[in-house]
Description:
Elements: H1 9-30, H2 35-89
Amino acid sequence: MANQQGIGAGGVVFAFMAGAAVGAAVALLLAPATGEETRERLGQRAREGRDRAAEAARQGRETINRQREKVTTAFDRAREQFQAATRETGPDA
């Protein structure tokens, strides 16, 4: 469904994470706690969000690198097959 609307998987994950972060912040702000406790919780949640975002970015880079390697390998194979076919048939074919 996400791809039909033009939103990639990364966009869906980002939107979910952003919504979760906003919801958590609002819940913390509305919960009965002292200002210091609330600030501490918000700081902790912000650090957790930063860590999750860094992990998601790392995984995204790994996925991109794997896909790039697959495309490169496929391209190299196609080039080799083309060159082999050209050698077999000769340049006049």
